[in-house]
Write the structure tokens for this entry.
Amino acid sequence: MSVVFSGIKPSGELTLGNYLGAMAQFLTYQEEEAYFCIVNQHAITVPQEAAELRQQTRRLAALYLASGLDPEKVTIFIQSEVPAHAQLAWIMTTLSQMGELERMTQYKEKAGGLNESIPAGLLTYPPFMAADILLYQADVVPVGDDQQQHLELTRTLAQRFNYRFGETFKLPVAAVAKETTRVMSLQDPLKKMSKSAEDSGTILLLDSPAVITKKIKRAVTDSENKLSYDPESKPGVSNLMAIYASISGLSYAEIEQKYADIPGYGQFKLDLAELVVGLLEPIQRRYGEIMAGDELDDMLTIGAQRASRVANKNLHQAEYAMGLSRR
Ligand code: ATP
Ligand code: LTN
């Protein structure tokens, strides 16, 4: 059985990108020893309003359940409720070099233009993420493509630790979804669909069917009016096709074939909207029930207890190896 770890930040409403890039993959690991974390300490690398953060955390937990994660099989918990994360994060920060942190693409994107006022947490966030993963001796980390660089750093830090203090951490690998490594904005297909930069190019998991259909109908395409997969010259259409392929299970060739005799993108877009609505409606229904019920808190308490047991054991090993604990 392999150990699986992943996390999502409660930094806004979840998008179809989060779902297809990360969550849908989580569901395939339920027979493994899997940990799915709500990484609230990562959300605060940019300012959050307290009541809002508390609510988003609860909503994300409900969405984990509504999307089909079974708390009987996997461990679902909130990062800040397992203090070992922050403890190992400090250790990983001390093993990191400024140069390698400054080279992280996500840091450069988020810190761009801020100069003196860049929150320091944006820089030191990747070693914190490394700690999240290493704390469970994870083998596999299902994530979107944008996180691969952080996974490489995680392996580098694990190797550095093992080299200096003796074999302690396993080296994890990223598992990236096939078609939807990176779902792009429907309005600007050169930009990632992002929950913190939300606009009409972003489909939210909790958008109503009418809103989803409207956003897809208005998605940017091109004037060629012929469906073919070519991310370089047809980024808008290719992004829609990737979403279509990921939900329907059809290949790009099969999709092209299906619409070969239908001119324009209108019918394709309508069918895509139907696919997305069909995917999200059951999740939204369960989400409503879970938010109204009272199972969530107990589930999170048990999750934090289960995660703590594993995390504390591995943290202690690391602290002992480097001379931080007496025995
Ligand atoms: P933000 O926009 O606030 O930085 P985010 O959605 O990129 O947030 P997370 O909440 O931490 O960041 O992402 C959770 C998971 O969803 C990660 O594995 C990430 O790679 C994946 N993900 C996020 N956006 C996309 C996308 N557009 N396509 C594919 N995967 C994505
Ligand atoms: N860095 C990720 C979120 C994240 C994560 C993790 C993902 C934090 N800790 C551990 C996988 C494993 C992001 O920004 N999307």
Residues 266-292 form the longest helix (27 residues).
